[in-house]
Specification:
By secondary structure, the chain is of the alpha+beta class. It has 2 domains: 5-198, no CATH class; 201-273, Alpha-Beta Plaits (2-Layer Sandwich), CATH 3.30.70. The chain is built from 10 helices and 4 strands, in the order ααααααααβαββαβ. It has helices at residues 5-32, 38-49, 55-74, 80-99, 110-130, 138-148, 153-172, 174-199, 211-220, 249-262, and strands spanning 201-208, 227-232, 239-248, 267-273. Strands 2-3-1-4 form a 4-stranded antiparallel beta sheet. The mean pLDDT is 87.
């Protein structure tokens, strides 16, 4: 099978996202006992009560079991990207434990450690979600529940994460528990923000008298498309045209400058949008 440029990009993002999740979990969650839901949160608590197995080993055991369960339930229909990310994450974290043992946190600043414990996995998860993958764990459970039940999966995962995080209060005391709760509340916000930032585009509505030069620049120089709509000025009654176009953020400055150069009387409305589905942006799943 030939690897296209898009597939190579997804492959690199898949590995980068998994690496970021692994670094955040091993170097910042585990040494500080931050239990921010999910399999890593369960592993932190299990590691507390079992001196013979570290949180890393517990996490890898649970992930492998869930991975096998996913294949048992879905067969070949189980997502390759999620399976790959789950396996690679186990390899990364186990390699970290062998090569860089963490007997204590990097610093004595728990809030700083919490920042990285939340930020790195959140950015990594956002990269994975953006290419329709995940790091496995409780996401596999969610996929199975979705197939066989009518549960509100989002609510079920939120409740399970909350229960796991509250268990940290019992296992490690209120201070660590409250840090974990703070991390849980922050995690989803960071993931949503990163995903929106990755996909952020600019939607141009250009009111002008001569749309052809503007559309020519959009199609030939920016390699994008545009739509021309007939319009009429409400106050002047003059014939106008609307040029509608969606472009990447780095292209927006170029188009704005060019429009003013081509038509100094053009009226521009520029808005942010992060859900663009179609050729040149995201495919329809």
């Amino acid at each position: 099978m030939t690897m296209t440029k898009e597939k190579w990009k997804d492959f690199l993002l898949l590995n980068l996202g998994t690496l970021l999740v692994s670094v955040g979990v091993y170097f910042f969650k585990f040494p500080n006992n931050f239990s921010i839901g999910g399999v890593s949160g369960i592993a932190v608590i299990l590691g507390r009560y079992s001196s013979f197995l570290s949180p890393t080993v517990w996490m890898n055991i649970i992930n492998v079991l869930l991975l096998l369960l996913g294949f048992a339930v879905f067969g070949r229909g189980f997502g390759f990207k999620t399976a790959y990310a789950t396996a690679v994450m186990s390899v990364f974290t186990q390699a970290f434990e062998w090569l860089i043992p963490m007997n204590k946190p990097f610093t004595d600043q728990p809030m700083l450690e919490l920042l990285f414990a939340v930020l790195l996995p959140a950015v990594g998860s956002a990269l994975l979600f953006n290419i329709d993958a995940s790091s496995g764990g409780t996401d596999i459970v969610a996929m199975i529940l979705k197939k066989y039940t009518s549960f509100n999966i989002g609510m079920a995962l939120m409740v399970s994460d909350l229960l796991i995080t509250l268990a940290a209060c019992v296992a490690f005391g209120m201070e660590t528990g409250l840090f974990s709760i703070t991390g849980l509340l922050t995690k989803s916000l960071v993931i949503d923000y990163v995903i929106e930032s990755i996909n952020m585009c600019k939607y141009f509505t250009i009111v002008c008298e001569k749309p052809e030069p503007i559309c020519d620049y959009i199609t030939h120089d920016l390699k994008r498309s545009a739509t021309i709509v007939d319009a009429k000025g409400a106050y002047t009654g003059e014939q106008k045209f609307l040029v509608l176009a969606v472009i990447r953020r780095y292209e927006a400055v170029l188009l704005r400058r060019k429009v003013k150069e081509l038509d100094s009387h053009a009226f521009l409305m520029i808005t942010n949008t992060s859900e663009i589905i179609g050729k040149g942006f995201r495919g329809v799943n």
